[in-house]
Design brief:
heterodimer, A: alpha/beta, Rossmann fold, two-stranded antiparallel sheet, 10 strands, B: Rossmann fold, Immunoglobulin-like, 8-stranded mixed β-sheet, 5-stranded mixed β-sheet
């Protein structure tokens, strides 16, 4: 897979930053608010003094007025582990440019945004299982590893998001921001269980669906042998306006199903096609959707 | 529109290959999708027959066929005949040299094509046209002012000559005889080669083509110190392929053959021994035949009489004379010393008779003495290998009676009946004789086919007079001197047609190849006449500019269309590539 990040592209991303809705339990200082009270300029709350607390955080003004020992707590600004799960199965290779190419480009851009925000970023490519990935790490050295992994990994095979999520949960213990990039073209909704487990662990999950325009509106006519790129199963039918309309209806139902699923679980869901420039998707769609600012 | 290379249309057959490959492809289009489940269960659209046909005949196929068609069209070298305004004076010059007899197809020669072209020109210029035939003997076929029908007939009736090419000087001289070049606004030469030295305003239409394998030289020389002759032959292969060639030389009695491989565009010379030849007239034939067969055959005659001068002694016998004449021309001479052969029939020759003598029912004083006639019950072959009996079956002979005879002891007897010699030969330093004992009228010899053969055998054993040294033969149109051959009585050409003999004729100018025979009071002489050697060689002075090997290569009023066809092919090819690229892109997008 070619390297597709250049300096000019990165410069145009420099004003973007992830927005995290909840407070994250990062270990290291970062730019995201942590649920742990800690030392920072942002006041969080009062609580009763307990032996062992640092005397420096006792609010003596309150003690003077109320004769109670209360300790001030502050928002602890923590780093955010961002994990990018990128679908590299055979179905993602459809189109020109391929969905794989687009997804990898997108993952690289988001990884860069995360690392630039002092977050830890990890990359986990997957097919029907989790492939060898990169655990979340700090620093721009990680960017190089991400690009190398995206370049070197061999796409192909079937897709199983459910199995991937199970593998992912077992391999990563810390919750964080998990961005799942796939075409989500699956007849099964089993992966909803995997998402539920991820949410239960406390992860913030974002679904980004990458489709080829031909996935939505195929341009075909006449007697056509249709071959599934992953299973090689075949079907032959005569494609005409009626068939195209029926197909579009099925695709719409499939997308609605995914949209409903994410809505019910409060998961941000974004959909794009490979003919939409990635920069536009980042600057317009993800900002409008509240994922970036 | 004319196609200069119509054979290229055969290349259209390759379209079958394109169609075959097209129909061998999968009928259904293939489409690779991300998720088959979205397609499964769809009922599909009904497809009309027209739609199915449309799907099979994709535009790229039509483009490919169109490209093939335009390429083939370009290869056929289409030519558009432009109609031109009638000119005030037109001279059409038909090349009438021998090489115009070269066949371009089975039933059309270069000359036929030239006539066709001339006919087309006459269509455009029905009047004020002169038609000339140019060769070493140029002629005017039609003078200006002839009525259109006559003009056309004079062209259509004309035949090519056997002469060599005419020259530019010949042409200008001929034009001068009908008013000069200034009388003609246009002069069109239709020939198989370009003419150098003609004014630039003269236009040329080429009618070349055809393959040629030729004998360009042939001569024969008697071996000075041994029997037979030696032939000298030069063969030329003007084709672009190797040729398995065979040269056969015959002297009307014997034949010798030489086979060899000739490289393309080569000239090979050979010395061919012909030791068993005793002939005078030689014909060399080169195989295989080609489009110009006339130069595959060349003739040569040794410079000596082809007939036998006979001094007849005794009574006439028309059977013997007929048998002699069936073999060679016979000239009777009175003086024994002028004769090649003395025939002694029913008489006794004097002892002074020398040279070759054929004795039939007679004798030679003191040498061959006949006695009383005795019945001949049967004929015995004494020496079956005797050269006199070559091809003769003695069993066919019936002899009622023959005289007994005394012959020299060293005589060689071929046939006898007991002690009676019937057929014998004898030779010493002064004479050689051939003895046939019976009276012809007492035998069945005149009515047997073997009798002329027997006479031929006798004559073939005669010692021939040595020929004058002669190393060349005459060419058609070349003056041949008749001096030194006596008083001319008649002359016939190769087809035995007598030629007129004007008074005071000392030379003849043969008009066709072959053996011409000259009859004089000194005997019969053969004149071997060949087509001019230069007619066997391909044109060496090509037209400037676009001249090629094709028929009608450059007609000034013809517009070549092959460039347009090539341009169309390129445009179609680009369109096909674009279409193919788009199709591939679409397929890639859908996979």
């Amino acid at each position: 897979m070619p390297t597709f990040i250049d300096e000019a592209f990165l410069r145009r991303l420099s004003n973007l930053r992830f927005i995290v809705k909840g407070r994250r339990k990062g270990h290291l200082a970062g730019l995201h608010a942590s649920p742990r009270a800690g030392v920072s300029l942002e006041f969080a709350d009062y609580r009763a003094y307990a032996p062992g607390d640092d005397f420096r955080y006792i609010d003596w003004n309150v003690f003077g007025r109320l004769d109670r020992l209360l300790v001030k707590t502050y928002v602890h600004e923590a780093d955010l582990p961002i994990r990018l799960l990128v679908d590299l199965s055979a179905s993602m290779q459809i189109g020109t440019p391929s969905k794989t190419h687009y997804a990898a480009h997108l993952a690289a851009a988001m990884g860069y945004l995360g690392l630039r925000g002092l977050d830890r970023v990890g990359l986990f490519p997957f097919t029907d299982h989790l492939l060898s990935g990169l655990p979340a790490r700090h620093g721009m050295a990680q960017m190089g590893k991400i690009l190398r992994l995206l370049r070197d990994v061999e796409p192909g095979g079937r897709t199983s998001i459910y199995q991937t999520l199970l593998d992912f949960i077992s391999q990563t213990r810390e919750s964080g921001l998990t961005i799942l990039i796939s075409d989500f073209l699956s007849s099964s909704t089993e992966f909803a269980d995997g998402l539920a487990r991820l949410l239960h662990r406390g992860d913030e999950v974002v679904l980004i669906q990458v489709l080829d325009p031909e996935d939505l509106t195929p341009h075909a006519a006449g007697m056509t042998r249709i071959i599934d790129v992953e299973s090689s199963r075949r079907a032959t039918l005569t494609i005409g306006p009626r068939t195209i309309a029926e197909y579009a209806e099925r695709v719409r139902e499939n997308l609605d199903q995914l949209r409903s699923l994410s809505f019910e679980r409060g998961i941000p869901y974004f959909s794009t096609t490979t003919d939409i420039p990635i920069e536009r998707f980042l600057h317009v769609d993800l900002r409008k959707g509240g994922m970036l600012r | 529109m004319t196609f200069l290379s119509p054979w290229a249309f055969y290349l259209l057959l390759t379209s079958l290959l394109i169609l075959l490959l097209h129909f061998m492809r999968a009928r259904e289009r293939q489409r690779t999708v991300s998720a088959l489940f979205l397609w499964e269960g769809l009922s599909g659209d009904p497809q009309s027959r027209a739609a199915r046909v449309r799907q099979q005949f994709d535009p790229l196929l039509l483009l490919q066929l169109a490209i093939l068609l335009t390429v083939v069209l370009a290869l056929t070298q289409p030519v558009w005949r432009m109609r031109t305004a009638t000119v005030s004076g037109l001279a059409i010059v038909l090349d009438g040299s021998a090489s115009m007899r070269t066949h371009l197809t089975d039933d059309a020669t270069r000359y036929d094509l030239a006539v066709k072209e001339a006919d087309a020109l006459l269509d455009r210029h029905p009047t004020t046209t002169a038609v000339l035939q140019l060769s070493a003997q140029p002629t005017i076929l039609a003078r200006p002012g002839l009525e259109s029908g006559e003009l056309r007939n004079s062209v259509l009736r004309s035949e090519p000559t056997w002469y060599a090419d005419g020259t530019a000087e010949d042409l200008l001289s001929l034009l001068g005889s009908i008013g000069g070049t200034s009388q003609f606004q246009k002069v069109v030469i239709i020939s198989d080669h370009a003419f150098s030295g003609v004014p630039e305003s003269f236009e040329t239409i080429l009618t070349d083509g055809g393959s040629n394998l030729s004998l360009t030289e042939f001569s024969v020389r008697e071996n000075p110190s041994s029997p037979g002759v030696t032939a000298f032959v030069t063969a030329q292969n003007s084709t672009d392929t190797y040729q398995n060639a065979t040269i056969k030389i015959d002297d009307r009695e014997n034949q010798t053959t030489l086979s060899f491989l000739m490289p393309p565009s080569s000239i090979e010379s050979y010395v061919i021994p012909f030791p068993n030849s005793r002939g005078t007239l030689f014909t060399a034939r080169l195989h295989p035949d080609d489009d110009f067969a006339a130069d595959n055959r060349r003739y040569f005659a040794l410079d000596r009489p082809i007939g036998i001068r006979v001094h007849w002694l005794g009574s006439d016998n028309r059977y013997v004379m007929a048998a002699l004449r069936s073999v060679v021309p016979i000239v009777l001479v009175d003086a024994p010393e002028d004769a090649d052969l003395a025939v002694v029939h029913d008489a006794v020759a004097p002892a002074s008779q020398v040279g070759a003598i054929l004795v039939i029912h007679g004798g030679i004083d003191g040498l061959v003495v006949q006695g009383e006639a005795v019945p001949i019950p049967g004929i015995q072959t004494v020496d079956s290998d005797h050269p006199l009996l070559n091809g003769v079956d003695p069993a066919a002979f019936l002899i009622r009676e023959a005289p007994a005879a005394t012959l020299p002891a060293s005589s060689s007897i071929a046939l006898a009946s007991g002690a009676v010699p019937l057929l014998a030969t004898y030779a010493d330093a002064d004479r050689s004789f051939y003895y046939l004992a019976p009276d012809i009228l007492e035998t069945n010899l005149p009515i047997t086919v073997d009798f002329p053969i027997l006479i031929r055998n006798i004559l073939s054993m005669l010692v021939r007079l040595p020929a004058e040294l002669s190393y060349r033969s005459a060419e058609v149109g070349e003056p041949v001197s008749l001096a030194g051959r006596g008083t001319i009585e008649s002359i016939v050409d190769a087809t035995r047609q007598p030629l007129p003999l004007p008074d005071g004729l000392s030379t003849i100018r043969p008009e066709s190849p072959g053996f011409h025979t000259l009859f004089t009071d000194r005997g019969a002489f053969a004149i071997a006449v060949n087509i001019p050697m230069a007619e066997s060689s391909p044109p060496t002075d090509p037209l400037q500019g676009t001249a090629t090997d094709s028929v009608l290569t450059r007609a000034v009023r013809h517009v070549s269309l092959w460039r347009i066809a090539v341009a169309m092919a390129i445009v179609l090819l680009l369109a096909e590539l674009h279409g193919y690229s788009r199709q591939r892109t679409t397929m890639r997008r859908t996979r």
